């Protein structure tokens, strides 16, 4: 038996797809497709907040330099304000690394709920629902590989995306 994917709740092998304790033998699975839900505005707002947090210290530093130069203060005060503003801008570097990492993870997880469906014993059944796009893509590809291998050994079985009574997938993850 070959294991194509495995985590705490999903296991895809050459024999079956197991999700949350339920097992679906590959020999009983027909067409497999996926659906994408609506965008999560919460996720998009979080990405916007990260962008503002990234720009905030740099904008504050630029404003400080501009104000110090515009007010024509004494050279000592101007240098102090410009120096403080530059330090604020430089302080954004370590913060930016953390924020860019969070932003990158946000895009890896995606902003939509994703569902994987299959025709099992003649009726549609939802195998998986998740908001994690990276994990969903790994599982979906594992099911594809398992189905392709099963189809090669028994040509009568349907493959992912083959025509049948269900429509073809509208989009790919």
> Which CATH first-tier class of the largest domain would you pick?
Mainly Beta
Q: Percent of residues in beta strands?
A: 25-35%
Which spans of ≥5 residues are poorly predicted at pLDDT below 50?
162-173
Say how many strands there are: 7
Mean pLDDT: 80
Q: How many domains in all?
A: 2
Biggest beta-sheet profile: 4 strands, antiparallel
CATH architecture of the largest domain: Roll
Q: Shape from CA axes?
A: rod-shaped
What Rg is obtained from the alpha carbons, in whole angstroms?
A: 26 Å
CATH fold description of the largest domain: PH-domain like
Helix percentage: 40-55%
Give, in order, the helices and strands: EEEEEHHEEH
- Give the number of helices: 3
Structural class: alpha+beta
Ends apart, CA distance between termini:
27 Å
**Strands ordered across the widest β-sheet:** 1-2-3-4
Account of the 3D structure:
- This protein is of the alpha+beta class and 173 residues long.
- The protein has helices at residues 41-70, 75-109, 133-153; strands at residues 3-6, 10-13, 16-19, 22-25, 29-39, 112-120, 123-130.
- The chain has a four-stranded antiparallel β-sheet, with helices on one face. The protein has a three-stranded antiparallel β-sheet with strand order 5-6-7.
- Strand 1 (3-6) and strand 2 (10-13) form a beta hairpin.
- The radius of gyration is 26 Å and the shape is rod-shaped.
Notable traits:
2 domains, disordered C terminus, 3 helices, 4-stranded antiparallel β-sheet, 7 strands, 3-stranded antiparallel β-sheet, 173 residues, single chain, 25% strand, alpha+beta, PH-domain like
């Amino acid at each position: 038996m070959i294991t194509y994917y495995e985590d705490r709740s999903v296991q895809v092998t050459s024999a079956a797809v197991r999700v949350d304790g339920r097992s679906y033998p590959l020999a009983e699975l027909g067409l497999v497709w996926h659906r994408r839900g609506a965008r999560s505005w919460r996720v998009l707002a979080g990405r916007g907040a990260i962008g503002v947090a990234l720009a905030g210290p740099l904008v504050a530093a630029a404003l400080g330099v501009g104000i110090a130069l515009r007010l024509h203060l004494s050279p000592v005060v101007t240098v102090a304000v410009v120096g403080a503003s530059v330090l604020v801008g430089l302080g954004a570097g370590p913060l930016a690394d953390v924020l860019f990492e969070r932003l990158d993870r946000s895009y890896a997880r995606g902003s939509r709920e994703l569902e994987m469906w299959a025709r099992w014993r003649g009726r549609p059944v939802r195998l998986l629902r998740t908001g994690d796009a990276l994990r969903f893509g790994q599982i979906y590809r594992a099911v594809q590989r398992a189905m392709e291998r099963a189809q090669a050994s028994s040509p009568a079985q349907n493959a992912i995306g083959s025509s049948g009574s269900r429509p073809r997938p509208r989009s790919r993850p």
